[in-house]
Batch of 3 targets.
Target 1
Amino acid sequence: MARVVAIGLDSVDIGLVERLIGEGQLPNLAALRARAARATLSIPTEYRSEAPWTEFGAGRSSESNRYWSTVIFDPETYGCPTIGAAAFVPFYALGAEKTVIALDIPHVRPHADVHGLQVIGWSVHDPEFPRCSVPSGLLRDIETTAGQQRATAVEFSGSWNQPRYIARYAQAVIDGARRRGAAVRLLLERCPEWDFLLVGISDAHQTGHQMWHGVDDRSPLRTASTAPIARESLLAIHRAIDASIGDILAAAGGAIVVVFSVKGMESASAEVVAWLLIPELLHRLRFGQPFVPSPARAGSIPGPLVPRPETRPGGPARQALAGSQPLRFRFVRRTIARATQSVARRGRLARRDREVAERMARLPLHEPVDALRLSSPIGSDAAWEPVGWYQPHWPRMRAFVIPSFSDVHLRINLAGRERDGLVAGGDYEAACDEVERELGACRDARTGQPVFVKISRMRSADPFAADGPAADIIAQCGGSVDVIDHPTVGRLGPFPYFRTGSHSVRGFAWVAGEGVRPGEVGDFPALDLPPTLLELLEARPPHALDGEVIRGLVPKLVAV
């Protein structure tokens, strides 16, 4: 019976991987690709940033899980608390039938029916669950043997326009990637009878958010002064990921190998729109005056803006947006100097890194895991996005934008559902029509094209359902937009890009092993991956899964 090694690459984009393989920069992935059956995976557009790892872990859709995001909306308080990972039975909770080692899978909780080892939060971006391990003490043993991850202390300490931050963050991520092989070897030694090794690698997630402008020629920030160091850093991180994959496969020995990503990365397409432009539009439509002033510049639209430090998400001064500086390639020295000054004080930053690492070392590892039963909500209000600046005004608006991580998520202020609802239940569809008309009137001021290419109604079947998605409407942008024109309000923006990369719906899965026929097998929903992994394991699912087996990835199911 074959063992299976599955390596999940969080937010690794297939287009960049293929390009780097062609350039000879990823030898381990190149060798794997040459002998692998290869499938293209896709995820639903809606909640594409929030839901894919939960859907993968459960093997079930958001609708089946009744869970769409780590951020919910409380209609009684108009708050948006974070709730952490959903409580579901992982598809790999196979009991005594199979022995599983699971390391750093995002958005999952430990489960009693996973027979083997489970580690959450050693080196994962945004795990959405407290750092812990099963058995107790295993995480501390990994940190003693392989070391701690410095990237956690650095990832939110700067922004894409700060060269020293990019360099420091990249080095911390690369250092962590080098340690992963030792962590996996320790787990394999502790559990030599393993059947399924499932490893998550998050190195490309947050680094893609901050450094994508260095590798994407379509990025509006491709001429930023930090683009060269972003490119160098992100490529080095992908080389480190490739080396980490080589370390894992060498440690695991002979097995069926699956390398996959359930979502990709692309130029930031909607975050300025979702976090600031549409919230500002709805505020001006309702109250007739600006909440955030647009940059007061006459003449043509300036180029993309460099955010000042205080305008980063969570920054205290919305007025500082008016002082954001134009991004010009010829201003390289000045831009670097300004960005460097904002993160100078290097001794203090280095000391902060050490202090964070020391605090991490002192964190309790939550023994036993049974103590980790989380109540909802577990986190603070999601006001770290600029959209949170508008929160006090929501009760007096017919519709408003709530926090998201990709598209524009809108909520109708519905009477009988929201505490101060203004829209009668019978007028719900008309209110949605009104919002869609205003969104449809928005034009990208740089191109003249419509801002939105897809608008979805998420709760039409029952807007009062207590367990439905937070958003009534989700509007998807067609490209990177930082300034819009509206026939009533006029021009809004330009406002600075807070990140340079956001998540795409592109994913992939490569399977290599004895009997696997190399080549492309087609396009499939990402929900088909969990049942395919179980088929490779020759294991029965612990519950009904929403996907189907990708036959071309399973040797015994491929027609000869």
Target 2
Amino acid sequence: MNKNRLLLVNILKYTVILICFLSLNSVIDGVFFAYSLYIGLLYAGFSPIALSLMYLASFLVFKSYQTLLFGLIHAILFCGLFLLYKIKNQTPKLEIVLYFLASVLPYVLFGENLTQKLIYSAIICLFSFISTQAVSILITIKNRAKPEIFPALCFSLIFVITSVGFINIFGVNAFKAFSVLAILFSQICFEKYTPYLISGILSAPLAITQTAPEYFCILFLWLMLSVIFADKSRFFSATGIIFAEFISAYFLNVYPSYQPTDLLFVAIPAIIYAFLPGFIFKSIKEFLNLNPKELLYYNYLNRTRTSLSQKLYEISGVFFQMKSALYELKSSTLSRQEITKKITAETISNVCKGCTFYERCQMKKQPNEEVFNSFILIGLSKNRLTLFDLPRTFTEVCGYPNSIIFEVNRLIGEHLDIIKQSEDVLHSKQIVSTQTNSLGEILKNLAFDFSKTFLPDKLAEKTLVEGLKRRGFFISGALILGEGEYAEIHIFTNEKTFKNPRFLEALSNITGEKLSFFSITPFNDDLILVGAKKSPPLDAIFGISSSPKTGSTYSGDTHSLIKISEGKFLIGLSDGMGSGENARNVSTATLNLIESFYRAGLNHDLILDSVNSILTLSSSENFSAVDLAVCDLYSRKCDFIKIGAPYGFVVNETGVRFIEGASLPIGILDELRPSFLELPISSGDVLVLMSDGITDAFGSSVEITEFLSRAKLKNPQNLADSIVETAINLSGGKKCDDLSCVCVRLIDKIAV
């Protein structure tokens, strides 16, 4: 809190205290009831100096130097005592009775009517104790704790006595103006029966000072005619009180005398209340409705999430470090280039240096190691060197090329196992490195998710519960976690309420968002816990059709449709090279791996690199063309990933759009370069993925485009069947390859 705001708060606080002191000293002429509140506020920790000045100022109402002297004695004695105790960081205990006797002794001894003064002093002593209990409510509220019954009763009693003095000083109309605001604010700030209790407490000082018990009925009528609109409109709620006062004055004639100006003291505060800024009420609600126990739950939940997030980050760092170490640490086996240099050195040593033409070759700057390396590398790739592999510049100089070839082939044979072992180790390192990187990425993403903390929004939860109640739905409790489109609403209710078709509609209307249920957890035979969150704007309908190659039992094409997360799904089509059982196994394994990695939360690059590494590990030709589309229904975007797959299409009423790809199938090369394209999607779009058996049957993209532009798009299953059937007909009924087609139609989301 800045200094200016703190100064303003202190000025307002001590102004209210001064009014309370003045009011208490005006209850009974010559009796300083303010003394009781003074002691109570000192116990509550208020500034002894500022409080003593306010206390002294309140004695001006007595217009008596003798009474002011008594107040000065109280102020000096207790200000000094509480300052001393504050320095020692202590609080007065039973010895306060001695201090009290010392402070009232001059009041009792000086002046007439000793018995009356003793009675007044005893009453003030009793009220001092009551005041300490009453003021403790201020500390209780400040610490967000629930007040106990006895302090609340003490507070009510002190309030009534203070209000009696307030009416004596400022008049009935001033207190009625205060009561209007108190009753209206109580309906906003408190729940259940509290406004009725406040109405009764406010009626008591009016009834006492005016000797008119009918004030209990008048204020109750204010409350009843205003509470009807409390949840709907502050303006109508305020108007209800004005109308109630008008009826009381002019129709029920409850006031012995009533002037038109008296109505203004009710109307003006009611109108002020009606047009106060909303943030004032929000701040008061947040202050009064804060539940420390629930805050402890939130704190424990957030602390647990933060601790788990930190641990996940640390573990992910271990896997990232493993990846770095695998790249940095050298293998114990030699690389192909190192083996080439070794064979070159041994060949020159074993053959060239023992040759009779060695000195002549040296004069011609031979043998040249770079030339040796070049043809030995060729021999390593072929597992054997021949005369045709030697360059002419070398054979024209060397007198014994056959001896060179013989020695190189001998050394290649010796190093073949080393070469294979080295390449296998390198490939294994690449796979392990990819996997450790993938695990690190998964853990990092989890750590990021758990790093988000939850803050309670009691006002939103209360608004939700009350809104459902007004619509006839009674729930046991609500919890709102997160904010914005990531907010989750958890509700504890009965099964009958949940199954009511209007329940979800009511939730959506209250929150202003189209919602859908994402979790349902039974609690017992009747009660359930349900979770709701913002629905994605789009939904999808799927259609799949396939047919194996003529003469083949199994299709090498496989498809995938999985939900990655809320509002995001993957559609995939994998075409194993060839047809039959092996092709089907390869394409199935490819899609299964891709599905698993996507579910784990990896990004595209890591997924495809991991799958490619695993497929290239096999000695057999396990190639697979992969066609993927990842749709995010919240962001209305779709990522198309093509790896050796034919073109796909996005079709709608306005036309047909190509999705092309130019990469090789997965599993051929160690380094993968997929084609990637991100496109916006909207309701009415139809995504079409197909295997090359269909594109080959159509002959050209122009024919497929013309077919799709004429096709009926409403039912994606009928469209997929129609595409496969047309491809078979175009092939003369003979299927030269496996045929597969996946169609997805996007529609507007209907909340469920």
Target 3
Amino acid sequence: MCHRIVTRIFRAGTRRTKVTSLPLDFVHDSVKDLTTAATIVEGVAALLRRATLRLAESGGPERQQTLAYDLAHASAALETARSLIDYGAKGETEATITCAFVADMVHDLSSRLIGREQLWTVQVSELASYEPFVATYRAPELLVSLAATTGPRHLDDDYEMVQDTFRSFGKKVIGKHAEHVHRENADVPEEIITGLADIGAFGLSIPSEFGGFSEGGEGEYMASCVATEELSRASLGIGGSLITRPEILTRALVKGGTEAQKQYWLPKLATAEVMAAVAVTEPDYGSDVASLKTTATAAKRDGVDGYVINGVKTWCTFAARANVLMLLARTDPDRSKSHRGLSLFIVPKPLGEAHGFVFQQDGGGRMEGRPIDTIGYRGMHSYEIAIEDWFVPADHLIGENEGLGKGFYFQMEGFENGRLQTAARAVGLMQAAYEAAFDYANNRNVFGKNIIDYELTQVKLGRMAVVIQASRQFSYAVAKMMGKGEGAMEASMVKAYVCKAAEWVTREAMQIHGGYGYAEEYPVSRLYVDARVLSIFEGADETLCLKVIARRLVESVQG
């Protein structure tokens, strides 16, 4: 599949990350200690299982929210560490990164436990046997040795080609617009949309029989993950997030659309002839999708059977530029049916002005979009949209009659992979922040020497490198799971861990820049405010932890 993508796109050069040699004492220990790291991972897993049993016995996530939230994040860090073990076996640097992350994971768990041992039924003292390992791999000199590299990625050749192509496009096309769009709150330049369409970016998840490049399996998810990371490295707002817009609608159509709907819409999505926005969230409900109020009532207009939509949607990203909204509405007025009364629609609309739009439809329909100004993640713009008596034909209900009441499940098909893609966006953002900080530290002189020469700077960069590579490898692991039809739980975990990690990495990158980090003169300030949105969209962190991760953890010990 990846091979087919790159036959249509240019082979781009790339700057390879330089891998520095590690001090021999650490090299020897890291390779030898990889077995110890694996043992620690399984030991921590047993402790977290015990805490999960405690959560189940004490009323579950709703009754013990603090325990559930911390346990979800501890479990996400554990699975990140578990995904690194195979990576660590591939070389000296890889082994050191793996051991350093496992030590970091244990340290994080201990900080969650102190003062709450009784709540968890796990004692900090139970981690005591891991202290020598943690001391070795949290040692400043160990982290200093990792400051100059985030480590090799170990991508297959096809994915290396995808990486090179999208990295080059990010640098040459997206990069020159990123700062202007952020500072001026401008629109996504059409050059980016047409350019991404030309290299096949919008067809990565669309089956090949419908004009895309997906042939199913691991390749589809890995290619999207790699492409998203590289585009996000150039810009979150006008790069990495742009190619996920059609993907959510694509997956809903593949899951539940009629053959005619697939034949009509998917080729248009693949070429960007049709750009989509998602209209699911509502002002009063946020992540509580099952309670939404927007209605779609069966009606006939000008002799055409269809539905009339009424309601308000919010946080509709890219809604002005989009040609269609993927809109979730209640088709069954019986609210006791919760999500079982929801259906999913493709709602055509004209192109609108970025800073607000009003459309009138023949027959009385009205749609008004009000932009929501944000501190970051600019370019695509988010909107609150009020919809009154907006008519859509019956064949715009995904699945038509067979799709009635199944909209929640269709949209979740796209949202689960959306969590993986959000993690990939976070990895790209972190990589950009790390590189900016590393470059600045090597060129900024303070008190007679460059910032890079100070131990504290190197320790920060070293931990950034560890966290970034761990996040990347976990993302790859989840992509491979999802290619096998698995990994729904892990997709939630990777989003939970990686998006929080991005906040820390971009914060430290800004700090390394000192006062200039707070100025818009340097891109790191954009990276910092962009990172903040990652734990909010595609499932707010708290909702994801309590309603998805912790709940499934409890189910796993009760089954």
